[in-house]
Design goal:
Radius of gyration of chain B: 16 Å
Largest sheet of chain A: 5 strands, mixed
Number of domains of chain B: 1
Low-confidence stretches of chain B: none
Number of helices of chain B: 0
Number of helices of chain A: 1
CATH topology of chain B: Immunoglobulin-like
Order of helices and strands of chain B: EEEEEEEE
Oligomer: heterodimer
Strand content of chain A: 35-45%
Mean pLDDT of chain A: 82
CATH superfamily of chain B: Immunoglobulins
Order of helices and strands of chain A: HEEEEEEEE
Low-confidence stretches of chain A: 1-29
Structural class of chain B: mainly beta
CATH architecture of chain B: Sandwich
Largest interface: A-B, 48 and 44 residues
Helix content of chain A: under 10%
Mean pLDDT of chain B: 95
Shape of chain B: elongated
Strand content of chain B: over 45%
Number of strands of chain A: 8
Largest sheet of chain B: 5 strands, mixed
């Protein structure tokens, strides 16, 4: 099942992206343990303990469809300042691999806000880590309950 | 599938100087994770868009490094502070080495 993926040629910006039913994260059962995620965050943070604050991760409490879960991040501060955010990396603790996406901001970004859509294999924590130009690291975390996992199996 | 990859962007055509405007982009792409198997039990090789870049008049505005956990038909919404009239250029890089680009002008009024 779910092996034939129908290509959708007609897509509308802003409308929900086409969902490839049951196609997303069919794994052999391997999952990124919370420890793998913690290690990835620690590597990113250069061993520093991420602080709370400055970054806000917005994600739905309940995602009916794990194939396409809307998420947004927003980081406080002037993007031209010495402590401006440089990179925001998103992790998913319960996916086969913890990495999701890294956003790189510049002073031309104007505001440190970005949104995308991600796959979630099951109910889990989504974590956003912001790394600042001055080396400081901030984190926010949201649990997303997934009704139909982005793995169809 | 490369022939079917089509980027779409929504960029305001005009802005006032130094206005921060919101940009939305979408590209149709399966974002094959490399974790799925076909009906014969063979792994379907990974093929994703792994990088997205937005530039204004050649200067980097926003960049994303994508993993297979990004949904099919990758969507991004972000902003740009428009210092002058110019061109936004968007580039998506595919695992297969292809890249797809789209441009749109913004006029400062």
């Amino acid at each position: 099942m779910g092996m034939h993926v129908t290509r959708r040629s007609a897509l509308a910006l802003g409308a929900g992206a086409a969902v490839l039913v049951g196609a997303a994260l069919r794994s052999g059962g391997a999952e990124a343990a919370a420890e793998d995620t913690a290690k990835a965050i620690s590597d990113l943070a250069g061993g520093k303990e991420p602080q709370a604050g400055r970054i806000t991760l917005t994600a739905p409490e309940i995602a009916e469809n794990g194939n396409t879960v809307p998420i947004s991040v927003s980081v406080d501060g002037d993007l031209a300042a010495p402590d401006a955010v440089e990179t925001v990396t998103i992790f998913a603790e319960g996916n086969p691999n913890p990495g999701v996406v890294s956003f790189h901001f510049t002073p031309l970004s104007g505001s440190a806000e970005a949104s995308t859509r991600m796959r979630l294999a099951k109910t889990q924590n989504v974590i956003a880590v912001a790394k600042m130009r001055d080396g400081s690291v901030y984190m926010d975390k949201k649990e997303v309950k997934v009704t139909i996992g982005g793995c169809g199996g | 599938m490369a022939a079917n990859v089509k980027p779409r962007v929504r960029v305001p055509k005009t802005a006032s100087k130094d206005e921060v405007i919101v940009i939305k982009t979408l590209i149709n792409h399966e974002m094959e994770t490399g974790l799925r198997k076909d009906k014969d039990g063979k792994i379907i090789p990974r093929q994703i868009i792994n990088k997205f870049t937005a530039e204004f008049n050649g200067q980097k505005v926003f960049e994303a490094d994508l993993e297979p956990a990004i949904s099919a038909n990758p969507y991004f919404e972000f902003s740009v502070k428009v210092p002058e009239s110019g061109t936004m250029k968007f580039t998506w890089v595919d695992d297969n080495g292809s890249s797809y680009t789209e441009e749109q002008k913004i006029e400062v009024q």
